[in-house]
Amino acid sequence: MTINHPSQTQSANKIIRIFDTTLRDGEQSPGATLRPEQKIVLARQLAKLGIDVIEPGFPISSPGEFAAVQQISRELQGVEIVGFARAIKGDIDAAVRSTMDAARRRLHLFISSSDIHLDFQLKKSREQVLAIAREMVAYGKQFVDEIEFSPMDASRSGRDFVIEMVEAVIAEGATVINLPDTLGYALPEEYGELFRSVRAGARGGDKVQYSAHCHNDLGLAVANSLAAINAGATQVEVTVNGIGERAGNCSLEELVMAIETRKSAIGAETGIVMSEIYETSRMVSRAMNFPIAYNKPIVGRNAFQHESGIHQDGLLKNRNTYEIMDPEAMGIPRSMIVLGKHSGRHAIKHRLAGYGIELNEEQLLDVYNRFIEKADEMKIVPDDVLVRLASESTDTQHDPYTLVDLQVLAGTQRSRIASVTIRERDSQEERTLTGTGKGPLEAVIHCLQQAIPVTAEFEDLELHSLSTGEDARGEAIVAIVHNNRRYTGTAVHNDIILAAAEAYVSACNQLLMSAQEDAAEELVQKKSS
């Protein structure tokens, strides 16, 4: 699989290589363990994203890990593959063997450099650690041309000792020097100065490439990585969604979009395929069962959503009023308007127009007044409720289909059985259908797929708790895809199964009403021509 990156084109900006360690350092997050086959799937997506260098695991750690690194090395011939190893011969041997079939490969060696690590973890002197670093880099150089060396905890190490260690490994053949902020301790000005000092102070320091590896314990991983770029680093080590030990690593999507959005100020760019950012984020989140925080920059649910009426009005007139990036360019579905008590009539009118519902001023005011009462109760008013409010105000049923009744039978020893009753708007006919599934949600969706005549792919279901306690309300978000267009339905209810069912019906109704609008518009165009 060969990927041609945009970074291969001519540019006046410095090209920053993106080194992804989601499958190695990211997987070290508690609870984030991946099966070998999951690693392979994610590695393919990372290649599609345009990653320059992939560190797919720690080969010595287990047979499954070794096999995954080996398979990724064989399959992804357009990406440089890294074999990760402690400064130990057994680790190096495993890393070398597992990456043997890669078209381009690198050995990544590390050993601690801070006094606190040397005294309490390694229990070795600086002289002993320096000798090990020299010996292991020389040993690895027998097998590979490219060797990256990391003095672990460099940002908390003595500056002179880091320079001495870097100088020693360069003499033995290291070609990339990584200066990790292992505990996320450094401030941006300190981290940038570390790179300047090492580049200037180590003999041969101007002949190698430099890499930044930052953790996010103080929330400074992206800022520190940008400081390293400003100080001469040409590679940054990142993870998708910023996952990693403790507070995580430098977030791939945050760093890349900071560079992309401010490339003229930073004087740099990457070869990342922007349109694959969102899908990559979702795949990693699902594989690791790690939900993404609502306010996570770039890929969080709220990153491009707005409830304030002032913001919504500005966005509807010109997106750039309150957004500095285009979410659709990153593959993020456009859903910028969130309807809550801070929303205005303009946003409500815009949302209903998407369903083909046009209101006069009197009807809009009535819907708005109903909406405000509902918003105080629900916080966020989902689409199905908004359409229902419009139906009440105009005394017209707008939804093609309405969920009338739902029953689910669950148990430990049998398949889950569901029964749903659906009413069709035009005929007012009610149909009751049954279905089974491994879980109650699957059984319900099977019923609804029989009842509603849409040929759409069920793409995604998200469930969120909106409150706590016995009367907790849950929000369901369902996405379906038809002809490469995504339709998203939302619903809120104390019964999360019912919320998911209503959200699915809402998504299907969107698709059907959108198709009706498209057909009507096409008819008008034909008549006018």
Automatic annotation (TrEMBL):
InterPro entries: 2-IPM_HCS-like (IPR050073), 2-isopropylmalate_synth_dimer (IPR013709), AIPM/Hcit_synth_CS (IPR002034), Aldolase_TIM (IPR013785), LeuA/HCS_post-cat (IPR054691), LeuA_allosteric_dom_sf (IPR036230), LeuA_bact_synth (IPR005671), PYR_CT (IPR000891)
Pathway the protein acts in: Amino-acid biosynthesis; L-leucine biosynthesis; L-leucine from 3-methyl-2-oxobutanoate: step 1/4
Keyword set, alphabetical order: Acyltransferase, Amino-acid biosynthesis, Branched-chain amino acid biosynthesis, Leucine biosynthesis, Manganese, Metal-binding, Transferase
Ranges where the Pyruvate carboxyltransferase domain occurs: 16-278
GO molecular function, one term: 2-isopropylmalate synthase activity
Cleaved signal peptide residues: none
Classification via CDD domains: DRE_TIM_IPMS
Enzyme nomenclature, EC number: 2.3.3.13
Pfam families noted in UniProt: HCS_D2 (PF22617), HMGL-like (PF00682), LeuA_dimer (PF08502)
Alphabetical list of Gene3D superfamilies matching this protein: 1.10.238.260, 3.30.160.270, Aldolase class I
UniProt xrefs under PROSITE patterns: AIPM_HOMOCIT_SYNTH_1, PYR_CT
Family indicated by similarity: Belongs to the alpha-IPM synthase/homocitrate synthase family. LeuA type 1 subfamily.
The protein's name in its UniProt record: 2-isopropylmalate synthase
